[in-house]
Amino acid sequence: MTIPTLQGTIQVPGDKSISHRAIIFGAIAEGKTTVLNFLRSNDCLATLQAFRQMGVHIEEEGNRLIIDGVGMQGLKESQEPLQMQNSGTSTRLLAGLLAGQRFDSQLLGDASLSKRPMGRVITPLSQMNGRLMATDGHLPMAINGEVLHGIHYSLPIASAQVKSAIILAALPAQSDTTIEEPLPSRDHSEKMLKLFSPESIDKKNHLITIHPGHPLTGQQIEVPADISSAAFFLVAAAIVPGSEVTIERVGLNPTRDGIIRVLQEMGADLTIEGIDQPGEPMANLTVKAGPLKPFHIKEADIPALVDEIPVLALLATAADGVSTISGAQELRVKESDRLTAIRSELGKLGAAIEEKPDGLIITGGRPLQVQNAALDSFGDHRIAMTLQVASLLVDQTVTIKDADCMAVSYPTFTSDLHTLIKE
Asked: Which of 45, 131, 273, 401 is deepest in the core (most CB within 10 A)?
């Protein structure tokens, strides 16, 4: 078995975070919202189904959605519990929105999601007079709709999901809400709210203020290609010898572009071709394989690349020296304990990785060699995709347990990767 190269141009599916939010804001807006390049992943389809259950008419034409908005208080009580599947984004954002509705709701999740902590959204929403009852801080969650009031809330950790939950709860509240961030996290909710209702939000430095009482108006949203999905191709092209890959129309939101800064720090052969258009910034990205220097990721860097840490650990195995990741303890409560999963499964391929309580130490510069061909994704889509990229670097066949979990964020990842492989 020979190691292939990767050559060609690809457009990865739409951004998962923006696809979720386009449905949510479109549903509570007045008038029609058209969403282009919607990501048809399991997570985003869970959000879509939830709003259909709450009476929102959504037409699907391939990756294009047309949403008939019902306004801020036009949602209806679902006759069945809302099934969040594996989607933490759906769960936390809907918890915020539903806390201020005029009806009761119940949120359910699969076994993995039911282990993830929900107290971080319940705490601020309860301070706003929300009534959310979870099972020891986990799903299932019952939400009794209440009239909410505004608060000033300092986020204990940088979390786009918690921030977005508070923003959505604040929109129908009786008074202004101010959110203070310790570090900048993804700002897709703020950008989208500004588009749907400019009067509803002010942002200055680390302070976000929501002014309730202003209607949202339907919009046309182009969802850029998801940089977290593009990351796997960026890394693959950088470390598979002889490769050159272009990924088109990738979202380069400054709160999400940490992987670009890491690649530049490592001296990767990266070309960025900007695309002039309104809304979220986009660019075509081209990466060629070449020598790499080690990186050092600190806690302040984590919010801008939290989903890319698994594949960045793989990237570090190809660098000439020791790379470090610290302040990443949040990865222990994702779909899996990602720090342990990375160390364990890349270790089966001969990677030299030391696990710390809040991160990893990766010694690069030596080829991967299969020591155990039975790899485990732990049901985590980002671990599964990382292992599939890693498999390109070894000359033996490996198996990945529960590889179908990739459908959570990127249903066509395997076939898209194969289109680039040149033997």
From this structure: 45
Phi and psi dihedrals of 349, rounded to 5? -100, 15
Question: Are the beta carbons of 170 and 177 closer than 8 angstroms?
Answer: yes
Q: Could you list the beta-strand ranges (E) of 181-277.
A: 201-204, 207-210, 220-222, 244-251, 269-275
pLDDT tens across 161-187, in order? Answer: 999 999 999 999 999 999 999 988 899
Q: Could you tell me what percentage of the chain is helix, strand and coil, using 3-state DSSP and rounding each to the nearest 5? A: 35, 25, 40
- In 262-396, the DSSP E strands lie at 269-275, 282-288, 296-297, 322-325, 352-356, 359-363, 374-376
Q: How far apart are CA 139 and CA 149, in angstroms?
A: 25
Burial of 1 (0-12, 13-18, 19+ CB in 10 A): exposed
> What are phi and psi for residue 78, nearest 5 degrees?
-75, 140
Separation between Cα atoms, residue 337 and residue 358, nearest integer Å = 11
Q: Is 273 helix (H, G, I), strand (E, B) or coil?
A: strand
Strand partners, 57: 68
Q: How far, in Å, CA of 33 to CA of 24, rounded?
A: 10
- Which uninterrupted H or E stretch holds 143? strand 138-144
Q: Known catalytic residues?
A: 307
d(CA 120, CA 167): 14
Contact (CB, 8 A) for 167 and 94: no
- Report pLDDT for 423: 78
Q: What is the pTM of this model?
A: 0.86
